[in-house]
Write a structure and sequence with these properties.
Chain lengths: ~325, ~325
C-alpha cells in the first residue's frame, strides 16, 4: 500500500524498476500485470503490502487487518473490471502475533473469501524482529483485451467517482483524536470506512466496455486522477463542489473546521475513479444501479496535463505537486 | 523463505491456512499453486520472502540480495519442471536503503532477468521502521498436468539429488567464523553457494515426464525429503555415505571437525531432490547430461513413513523430529 504518496516513490519506480518491466507489466503504469489465461481471458496480477504501525495500528483487530490487506488488492482488480480468483499471502510476523492473533487473522480471511468468492492459492510465513509485514498477490480474470486501463481516457470524457470521498481520511483523523464533538454514529461510519475498504468489484465489472479509463483511489483523489491523466497524456478539470461527501464527512468537516478540499489529498478511499464519453452517461447510470453503488460526475478530461481543481465559480484552486490543495 | 524449519511453522499452516486453500493450491502441500493458462499450459505460482538480519546480513551487497530473493523462488519453479515467465516484487525498505542501495539491487535483478529470461510484472514499494523485507511472487509455465509434484513418489522409486549438499550451510558457518584454516578458494566457493543459489531449472524441465515427485531443498535434505515422503504417504531410506559433497565441503568438514550428517539438516541448498522408478535410471542420466548438472542416487522410497538415515553398514543413524541427525 502506498501510504505516503510522494514523488520520491514514483521517481524510484520510474528510475529503478520501470526498466526491468516485462511487456505484460504495462510499463508499471497500471499497478497490475496482464498475462494470457485460458482462451478469451487474461489474468490480472496485483501485489500490495501493509506494515504494522505504518498502514495500520498495532492493536487493530487481526481479522480487520486481514480484510484490509485483501481488499486493497481487490480494489485494484475492481478498477480493471476483473473478477477475483484468488490470492497468495505472505505473513512476516513478530513473536507478538501468537496463535490467538493468527486465528482471528485467518477468520477475517475466511469471511472475505466467502464474500468475494476467492481462495488462498499459496503463501509464505516467516519471522521478523520488526513490525508485522503482510503482503498479498491477488489474481483476477478479465476478458482478453477488455481490462480497463489508466491510459485510455479521451479528451471530453466525463470523470466519475463511485461512493463518497474523504471518509477514510476523516476516520483516521477521528482515531487520532483530531475531530471532537462528532456524533458516535458518524464517527463509527468514518472509522469503519478507514478500516474496511469496499472494493467496487461489481461496478468495475459493469464498466468493462463503457469506461475508457479507471483507477482505484488509494493515494487520494487528486493524486490518482493525476496518475490517470499521466497515463492518458491528458489533463483534467475537477469541480470541488461536485465531489460527493457522505453526511458523516460533512458533519466531521463542520466539527473539525477542516476544509473540504483537504479530503481530496487524503488516501484510503478505495473508490473507483473512471472516465467515459458523454454519450454513455445513461449506460453509466444503468451500471451504477446494477452494481448498487452511487456514481457521481466530478469533472472532464481535456487536452493538456495535470489536474485543475475548480471552485464553485469555476476559478482554479491551487494544488501543489504532491496533490495537496491550498485553500 | 522458511529459514528455521520447525514444526510450529507447519502446524500453523495446517491449522490456520490449509482450511482457506483454493483447489488450485494443492492443499498447500506443494508450496505452489497451479492455475489454468493458455491451451495446454498451466501457470505455477510461488511466493517467498526474505528479511534483513534473518535471511541475509544487513551489509550484504544489494545485488546479491536481489538475486537470492529471485532464485529461491525460481528454485521452487524448477522443482515443478516449470519455465519461469516473470515475477512481482515487493520491497519494504528502511530509510537506510537509499538510492545507491536500490540501484545495486535493481542491477542484480536486471542481471538475473537476463540469465533466466524473465521480466518484472509488477510490485509494491513501501517504507518500514523495521528491517528490509523483500518478497517475490514468481510465475512459471508448465504443460497441463505435467508439473512434478511432491506427492507422486512410488515405493521402489530411486531418490536422486542434484549438485552437492551442505555447501551453503558451511558457507554460512564460514561467514560466522566457525571454520578456520580453510583454503581461500574453498571458503569462497562455499560462501558463494550460500549467497547465490543456482535454481536447477534446466534439470527440472528435463525431469518432466520422468520424475514421479520432486522438491527443492531449502529447509535441509532430511526435512525436505520428509516433506516429499509426507506428501507421497511413503517412507524413504537415505544412505548418508552416498550424499554428494563438494571438495570444498569435504575440506571444511575436515578443518572444522563438523560431522557430515549435520549438513543434511542445514538449509539453503536449493538443489533438486526427486524420485524416479529404477527403469528410468538411464533417462535420468541423459537428463542430467543435457542439463549440465550432476545427479546422484542417495536412497529409495519405501512403504511406511518418515526418513531413515543409514550409515555405510546400513545401520540407522538417529534423527530427531526436526530433521537433525544424532551421530
Amino acid at each position: 500500500m502506498t501510504t505516503a504518496p510522494h514523488l520520491g516513490e514514483f521517481e524510484r519506480i520510474a528510475r529503478f524498476f520501470a526498466p526491468l518491466a516485462a511487456p505484460q507489466a504495462l510499463g508499471l503504469v497500471d499497478d497490475v500485470a496482464l498475462i494470457d489465461g485460458p482462451p478469451g481471458e487474461q489474468y490480472v496480477l496485483k501485489t500490495d503490502a501493509i506494515v504494522e504501525g505504518v498502514d495500520y495500528f498495532p492493536g487493530d483487530p487481526p481479522g480487520q487487518i486481514a480484510q484490509k490487506l485483501l481488499r486493497v488488492n481487490l480494489s485494484d482488480l475492481a478498477a480493471k473490471g476483473a473478477t477475483p480468483l484468488g490470492y497468495l499471502l505472505t505473513t512476516i510476523l513478530p513473536k507478538s502475533c501468537d496463535e490467538t492473533w493468527l486465528e482471528a487473522f485467518a477468520a477475517g480471511l475466511a469471511a472475505d473469501q466467502a464474500t468475494y468468492g476467492i481462495g488462498l492459492l499459496g503463501g509464505d510465513s516467516s519471522a521478523t524482529p520488526g513490525p508485522a509485514t503482510l503482503s498479498v498477490t491477488a489474481i483476477g480474470r478479465v476478458a482478453t483485451g477488455k481490462a480497463v486501463l489508466r491510459g485510455g481516457a479521451k479528451p471530453g470524457d466525463l470523470i466519475y467517482v463511485s461512493g463518497t470521498i474523504g471518509d477514510a481520511t476523516l476516520g483516521l483523523a477521528a482515531l487520532k483524536g483530531e475531530i471532537e464533538g462528532l456524533e458516535p454514529a458518524a464517527r463509527d461510519f468514518l472509522v469503519d470506512r478507514y478500516h474496511l475498504p469496499q472494493p467496487r468489484l461489481a461496478l468495475g465489472q459493469k464498466l468493462v466496455g463503457l469506461a475508457h479509463a479507471a483507477i482505484d483511489i488509494s493515494d487520494g483523489l487528486i493524486a490518482d486522477l493525476g496518475h490517470l491523466c499521466g497515463a492518458s497524456r491528458l489533463g483534467a478539470s475537477l469541480r470541488a463542489e461536485d465531489v460527493p461527501l457522505s453526511p458523516a464527512a460533512r458533519a466531521a468537516l463542520e466539527a473539525s473546521k477542516k476544509s473540504r478540499t483537504m479530503l481530496f489529498s487524503g488516501g484510503d478511499d478505495y473508490e473507483l475513479l473512471f472516465t467515459a464519453p458523454p454519450n454513455l452517461a445513461y449506460k453509466i447510470e444503468a451500471a451504477m444501479r446494477a452494481a448498487g453503488v452511487t456514481v457521481t460526475r466530478i469533472g472532464e478530461m481535456e487536452a493538456g496535463h495535470g489536474v485543475k481543481l475548480l471552485d464553485a465559480q469555476g476559478e482554479p484552486i491551487p494544488i501543489d505537486r504532491a496533490g495537496y490543495s491550498h485553500f
